[in-house]
Amino acid sequence: MAEFRFITDKEEFIPDFNELVRAFAPHASLGDGGYTVEIKIDNVADSSVCIWLNCYKLSGISEYCYENRINLEDSCGYPDAKSRIKRECKVALYKCLSAITAVVLPYGSLTGIRPTKLYHDLVHAGIDADSYLKDYLLVSDSKADLIKEITMQQSGIYDISGEAADLFVNIPFCVTRCSYCSFICAEIGKVSKFIPRYVELLIDEIKRAKLLASRLGYKLRSVYVGGGTPTSLSDSDFSAVLSAIGGDIAEFTVEAGRPDTISDSKLKIMDDMGVTRISINPQSFNDNTLSLIGRSHSAADVYRAYEAASRYNFDINTDLIAMLPSESLEDFARSVDCAAALRPANITVHTLAIKKGSVLKDSGYDNKDDSLPAAMIDYSHAALTSAGYSPYYMYRQKYMSGNLENTGYCLKGKQCVYNVDIMEECATIFACGAGAISKAVMPEASRIERLANPKGLDVYLARGDTLADKKDAFFTDLLIKKV
């Protein structure tokens, strides 16, 4: 394994450089025992700089050199010169790391979590996005084509007018904690005494967020109730939260998620409250895998929940995860085939990301196999597109298996508006609940501002009475004064 350290006059770029090195794991790591990468940015003129990179071993012998002059008047779609320079440095570093390790990453030098947002921004700036991804950022042809295909599937939904808005409601409770989970959520049986107060505060926050959105001239086009597992609440609490949302909403999603929490009464409540879309998330159709990752349901429970939900007029999403512990390509392929056979409106294929705070991370689970993640994701794409599904949104995360992606697939006309809005950051979001992050999108100023609620349940309960006022001041200041 090659180790890399950095010397640069742009210390603020080092976290980005470190992130790119980590993307090459297990072939590269951060450390002092191998290579030093020196990166300098020299001002050539008022409107241009020269990026200079030299990679050498402890012996001082140079292993890779790079030099390129860039014209800062050509923004390449980036908001400022600093962003443009940082991108050039990352391209230079990617070429260096690839040369030293002989590894080519599927997304090239691109480490951002929203590749499709970049594509939209490039097109909006009048730049040939396909060439920019493939020739400059060195994204593979197949991934660049996937990015383009997804943006095409977002036609009619993607909206940068600044007029679109959604409501997000967070229910941070689950029946058990999955081994891959890093979310701030609690096992509901352990915090039951706090639920009444949480629901009370959440309902008040929801009602005031809706009033705020209306006062600012927004008509919510999508509501997403996530978590956690919203259906882990009691029927009465669940009904109260959905009732507070209410209203005439074109898309109303509830992430039912865990099949073992989906009852006839919960389904009826959702139907009565106008819910249009739900998630039933197997993650795998392999019972041994479900047990290993801490799910408290079986594949049979998935089929039971799906059959019960199919009696209503919900669009259904099912989630799957590639690279779960002990699964082979055949195991994963079977799950993909099982999900496709159910014919849900959406199928989301996640690539496992090992995150801090998860049981898998603490146990040392290694998801850095060179070929298996790609084989799994390639199979899912081929199988689902052959079955009539189209990819319509994607996002990437740190520490993902194979440096790949999460992709949402849909049947024709069944794109989830909220998923497009949240991933492309093209809609203002009024967010309620512990850990929820509101977002003010201001395209006229090329700005996005965020307001985060407290993550911890205890802190949310302590501050809940003040959060609606804080949200009101945040949006009023940004969206009315436009400062």
Overview of the molecule:
The protein folds into 2 domains: 2-103, Rossmann fold (3-Layer(aba) Sandwich), CATH 3.40.50.10070; 165-432, Aldolase class I (TIM Barrel, Alpha-Beta Barrel), CATH 3.20.20.70. The strands form 4 sheets. It has a 9-stranded mixed beta sheet, with helices on both faces. The protein is built from 15 helices and 18 strands. With 483 residues, it is α/β, with parallel strands linked by helices. The termini are far apart. Helix 1 packs parallel to helix 2 and helix 3 packs across helix 5 (141-153). It is globular, with a radius of gyration of 23 Å. The relative contact order is 0.11.
Number of helices: 15
- Gap from first CA to last CA: 49 Å
The CATH top-level class label of the largest domain: Alpha Beta
**How many strands appear in the DSSP assignment?**
18
Concise overview:
This protein has helices spanning 14-23, 81-101, 115-124, 129-136, 141-153, 195-215, 235-245, 264-272, 287-292, 299-309, 329-342, 359-362, 372-386, 417-424, 457-481, and strands at 2-8, 28-30, 35-45, 48-57, 62-71, 165-171, 173-174, 186-187, 222-227, 251-257, 277-280, 315-322, 346-351, 390-395, 406-410, 428-432, 437-442, 447-452. It has 483 residues and is α/β, with parallel strands linked by helices. Helix 11 links the parallel strand 12 and strand 13 (346-351).
